[in-house]
Task: inverse folding
């Protein structure tokens, strides 16, 4: 039993990590009042940017930050269309996904199947010695350990810093924030671009640590799962962790079942995460916590004059 | 310095100017992309143009691709009008194809006059049900329909895979995932021997029918009124919930018909290559057409022509097919950004104020 469960839980943490980065990134964006449905496209583009950067420079760390940078650029485009040009947030996000998937399928062709230096797992000093916990959480690559810290920073930023409060104010009542002397437009740009950075790190994780190679369709719906998880998490980083690992668990479990050669057809197994996404949305709706959503989410700030 | 001023009256030709501007801008960026790939950009654009509008075969191909796009987009637009974000045309298209195939494989010996309607009915029903699931989830549980329709796309495509890889697989296909070929009575034929098939006439009927429904019936009027949102609709004593279900069923049914026509007239069997993203392009079409049926006809032809042109580019210059997807995304983003100028204009700020 344990020899099955412990590797399964360890795999859960690993496959939950890209989803965790992306979920926190989307949460950051939405905290500022902007809905970004481009997560899937951003993850794809940043995965490619990370992969090619790591391949050319030989440094996976540079690749990791290149992924974040690509995410920031894509998100800035969304910000420009929605915040400055007042475009519809839903449609702009969809367009961003269409664009991002197109760009990766276009530019990624020469890189399919090539190797690039990625992140390898190592035992975290001391902590990996703890029985069970160490096996599950502390025998991974560096990016997993980084992802453990980010939810705490996220929480601290929004709960304990005034800048974080200002950002959530523009997500709640931009007009009031402006009246209080804040700059809602700039704050929204910050939320969108910082969120894009985190989403980009999630994309980078996919190509640098999860697969170590580049293929088309690498994000495989994880971006959409992240959007759903923000609702499930009621815009709280702690619950984002739970949600991400829930999905990581289902993906790891499904892969293991396939590897064990079950009689279930693989296409039916592959449906599991998508069905679970709908179930998770039903569950969070049943809890009826919609009040937690930033009040101005999805609405643009009209300029005066 | 520039100052933003709200327009007192709408800019009459604005939408058209913005659309053309977006098209030009995207073409310019595409030329840059071609150049970046080490190709002759001007030659590339010429091939794109020739492949889209320059030959009779190109126009024929565009018309063929416009048929599924038009139906999917019409469905998407009906839902968008009520501010229901149906992003699930792709999945509803797949379910329509599955429904039609189911009938075609079950009753191969039936005469076309019975089988064809059966295929269309089943395609509409399955496509409609696929769209009703998110509608009901939204009404009863307030589940976000953007995500549920999207997830159902993934599920539908996997369901299609499951069927063609297993249950419905042609035993003589040498391991390729495809169903047996349809019997002649399950195949939509070409108009007067051309490649363009009777699905085109079907589209015309559906388009006119929807327009008449929206213009002349009470239900159509209520539908337009509920576009202002649930609260306005309730104020006008409109049964909002019922309308949402109706609209989503129609929306999914139309996409289902597109799937039925594409399987029956073009592939003559069900296979995974059916899914080329018409459902996602339909969103681009609907938005570019500002949700108007007649504009949708034009926009779907335009984007279908673009697809044919990109295929040509792919053949002649070995440019990946994703080039077309990039252009679609870019046109949509630019149009969205450009809509700013429909509501506002930029004016030079008088100096004395500084």
Result:
């Amino acid at each position: 039993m344990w020899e099955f469960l412990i590797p399964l839980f360890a795999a859960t943490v690993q496959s939950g990590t890209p989803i965790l980065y992306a979920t926190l990134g989307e949460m950051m964006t939405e905290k500022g009042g902007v809905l970004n449905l481009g997560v899937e496209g951003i993850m794809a583009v940043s995965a490619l940017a990370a992969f090619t950067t790591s391949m050319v420079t030989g440094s996976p760390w540079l690749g990791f930050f290149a992924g974040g940078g690509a995410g920031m650029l894509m998100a800035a485009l969304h910000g420009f269309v929605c915040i400055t040009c007042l475009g519809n947030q839903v449609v702009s996000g969809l367009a961003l996904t269409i664009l991002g998937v197109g760009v990766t399928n276009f530019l990624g062709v020469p890189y399919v199947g090539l190797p690039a230096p990625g992140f390898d797992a190592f035992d975290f000093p001391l902590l990996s010695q703890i029985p069970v916990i160490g096996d599950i959480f502390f025998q991974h690559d560096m990016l997993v350990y980084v992802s453990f810290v980010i939810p705490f920073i996220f929480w601290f930023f929004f709960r304990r810093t005034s800048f974080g409060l200002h950002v959530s104010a523009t997500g709640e009542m931009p007009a009031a924030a402006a009246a209080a002397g804040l700059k809602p437009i700039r704050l929204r740009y910050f939320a969108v671009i910082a969120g894009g950075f985190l989403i980009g790190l999630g994309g980078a994780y996919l190509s640098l640590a999860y697969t170590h190679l580049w293929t088309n369709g690498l994000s495989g719906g994880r971006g959409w799962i992240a959007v759903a998880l923000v609702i499930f998490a009621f815009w709280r980083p702690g619950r984002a962790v739970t949600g991400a690992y829930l999905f990581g668990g289902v993906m790891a479990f499904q892969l293991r079942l396939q590897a064990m050669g079950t009689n279930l057809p693989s296409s039916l197994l592959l449906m599991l995460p998508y069905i679970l996404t709908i179930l998770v949305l039903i569950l969070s709706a049943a809890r009826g916590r919609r009040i937690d959503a930033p009040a101005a989410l999805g609405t643009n700030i009209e300029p005066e004059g | 310095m520039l100052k933003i001023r709200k327009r007192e009256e709408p800019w009459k030709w604005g939408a058209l100017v913005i659309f053309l501007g977006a098209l030009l801008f995207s073409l310019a960026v595409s030329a840059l992309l071609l150049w970046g790939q080490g190709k002759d950009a001007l030659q590339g654009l010429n091939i794109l143009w020739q492949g889209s509008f320059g030959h009779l075969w190109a126009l024929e191909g565009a018309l063929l691709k416009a048929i599924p796009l038009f139906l999917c987009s019409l469905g998407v637009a009906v839902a968008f009008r009520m501010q229901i974000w149906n992003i699930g045309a792709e999945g509803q298209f797949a379910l329509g194809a599955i429904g039609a195939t189911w009938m075609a494989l079950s009753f191969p010996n039936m005469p076309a006059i019975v089988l064809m309607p059966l295929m269309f009915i089943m395609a509409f029903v399955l496509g409609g049900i696929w769209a009703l699931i998110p509608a009901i989830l939204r009404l009863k549980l307030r589940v976000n329909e953007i995500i549920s329709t999207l997830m159902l796309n993934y599920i539908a495509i996997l369901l299609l895979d499951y069927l063609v890889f297993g249950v419905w697989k042609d035993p003589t296909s040498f391991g390729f995932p495809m169903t047996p070929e349809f019997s002649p009575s399950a195949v939509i034929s070409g108009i007067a021997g051309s490649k363009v098939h009777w699905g085109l006439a079907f589209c015309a009927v559906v388009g006119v029918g929807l327009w008449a429904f929206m213009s002349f019936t009470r239900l159509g009027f209520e539908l337009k009124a509920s576009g202002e949102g649930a609260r306005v609709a309730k104020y006008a004593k409109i049964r909002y919930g019922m309308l949402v279900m109706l609209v989503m069923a129609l929306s999914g049914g139309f996409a289902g018909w597109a799937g039925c026509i594409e399987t029956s007239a073009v592939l003559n069997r069900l296979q995974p290559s059916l899914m080329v993203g018409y459902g996602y392009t339909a969103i681009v079409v609907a938005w570019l057409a500002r949700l108007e049926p007649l504009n949708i006809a034009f926009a779907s032809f335009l984007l279908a022509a673009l697809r044919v042109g990109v295929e040509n580019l792919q053949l002649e210059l070995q440019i990946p097919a994703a080039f077309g997807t990039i252009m679609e995304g870019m046109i949509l983003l630019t149009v969205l950004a450009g809509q700013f100028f429909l509501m506002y204009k930029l004016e030079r700020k008088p100096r004395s104020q500084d």
Q: What stands out?
A: The mean pLDDT of chain B is 89. The radius of gyration of chain B is 22 Å.
